[in-house]
Amino acid sequence: MGRGSSSGVISTVTILSTILANLVLSATTVTAFSFWPHHYVHVTNQLTGGKVLLVHCKSGSGDLGVQAINPANEFNWRFRPWNLYVSTLYWCYIAPDDNHHIYFDAWTEDVAGKYEFDYNMYWVVKDDGLYVRVPTRGDLSVKKWDQGRMEEQEKPNS
User: Fold this and answer.
1) Average pLDDT in the 47-56 region?
2) Rounded-to-integer distance, Cα 136 and Cα 98, Å
3) What backbone phi and psi angles, to 5 degrees, belong to 35?
4) What is its main location (predicted)?
5) Is 61 helix (H, G, I), strand (E, B) or coil?
6) Residue 72 gets which letter from DSSP?
7) In CATH, which of 3.40.50.1000, 3.30.2310.20, 3.30.70.920, 2.60.40.10 is domain 37-149?
8) Distant-in-sequence, close-in-space partners of 5: CB < 8 Å, separation ≥ 6
């Protein structure tokens, strides 16, 4: 009888240990993603004269659609750079009117590193072109407006 009860205790301990291990693994799986933080990209319209900014951003896996950004407002999105072997890339096309545009890489590992960004990248659109807002250095001019509108066949491969 004593032998059967110790066997029952061992079985109970084994079952409880298995349940506890499964709970820990489940919790780790769910919370592991918090260790792989979101990154944020912000595109802010600082054009004067009440100009609405058209913004169209994409990645290799999705199209964020065409956005009409009112003055002093921003378009932003968040993502996790999932693939460890291929760098995540978001690119954008912006236009303040029918006569000017800029195409730029909004987020890559290289761009984030170049401008010392951690998890937030800030792009600021002004009358003379595109700026990047660097926390330690302010707004830095990145690109001036190209003339005309980019034609569909001119757009880089997506």
Assistant:
1) 97
2) 34
3) -80, -10
4) secreted
5) coil
6) T
7) 2.60.40.10
8) none
Tell me how far apart the alpha carbons of residues 115 and 150 are, in angstroms, rounded to a whole number. 27
79-109: pLDDT as tens digits: 777 655 556 788 999 999 999 999 999 977 7
How open is the CA angle 136-138-142, to the nearest 5 degrees? 115
Edge to edge, the sheet with strand 90-97 lists: 62-69, 53-59, 90-97, 100-107, 146-147
Check residue 100 and give its pLDDT. 96
Q: How far apart are CA 137 and CA 116, in angstroms?
A: 10
pTM of the model: 0.69
